[in-house]
Amino acid sequence: MKVGIVQFLGTNCDKDCKFACDVVGIKNEFLWYESKDLNGCDVVVLPGGFSYGDYLRAGVLAKFSPIMESIREFAKKGGYVIGICNGFQILTESGLLKGTLLKNSNLRFIHRDVYVKVEKSKSAFTKGLEGAVLKLPIAHADGNYYCSKEDLDYMLEKEMVVLRYSNSNGQIEGSCNPNGSLENIAGICNENGNVFGLMPHPERAVGDLGSDGEPIWSRLL
């Protein structure tokens, strides 16, 4: 497997994602946002950061980048795509995932460790991890996941909710929700399970930084 890590203007977690790939032994390379060539990559990563400075709305301008045209086609054909933080925002803005990411309910940037419970879902990125509780860092101002009731009901029916904010025992409680996300949602996938978006940063919990992010990266092997 070869992983392509997309670099937009304003991306700042690209090297973190490369570090995570290197730790688990995944071949990887950077992909420039102005190119349409995915260079034969089997998995595409949209890292965190502030693509286009988050002007207008987080992720909204990145969806017009030339590489996103290729990524949309890649995903439609079953290619694996994971979007982390700003990457998650780009996936929703691009229509590859349902819903949107709003301002945090406290209207402040949040940077701390959280616990997330892995739900039973169609996500190829969490297969075999169902029920696990992972400790991962978050760092965002627009992580408040929201969607319509119709979309939520559909996602629950189709097992598209992948991660929920929880306590260390895996209990889903309102007090564990750091940003006001609907139903404590921290990550979702598309109906086929090949596109996955999440707000926590698994690339910041690998190697000497921790181990809870490694199971997600290992699924890319």
SSE arrangement:
Layout: E1 2-7, H1 14-24, E2 27-32, E3 43-46, H2 66-76, E4 80-84, H3 86-93, E5 100-102, E6 110-118, E7 133-140, E8 144-146, H4 149-157, E9 161-166, E10 185-189, E11 195-198, H5 214-218
Parallel strand pairs: 1-2, 1-3, 3-4, 4-11
Antiparallel strand pairs: 5-8, 6-7, 6-9, 9-10, 10-11
CATH class: Alpha Beta
- CATH topology, by name, is Rossmann fold
How much of the polypeptide forms β-strand, as a percent range? 25-35%
Task: Report the end-to-end length measured between terminal Cα atoms.
Answer: 6 Å
The rough form would be described as: globular
Integer count of domains = 1
How many β strands by DSSP? 11
Helix/strand order: EHEEHEHEEEEHEEEH
Mind telling me which CATH architecture this is?
A: 3-Layer(aba) Sandwich
Portion of residues within helices: 10-25%
Strand order of the largest sheet: 2-1-3-4-11-10-9-6-7
Query: How many separate helices?
Result: 5
Radius of gyration: 16 Å
Contiguous uncertain segments of 5+ residues: none
Largest sheet at a glance? 9 strands, mixed
Nearest-integer average pLDDT: 97
What structural class is derived from the secondary structure elements? alpha/beta
CATH superfamily: Class I glutamine amidotransferase (GATase) domain
Report what the structure shows.
With 221 residues, the chain is an alpha/beta fold. The chain has a single domain, classed as Class I glutamine amidotransferase (GATase) domain (Rossmann fold), CATH 3.40.50.880. Helix content is 20%, strand content 27%. The strands form two sheets. It has a nine-stranded mixed β-sheet, sandwiched between helices. A hairpin with a 5-residue loop joins strand 10 and strand 11. The termini are close together. The model has no long low-confidence stretch (mean pLDDT 97).
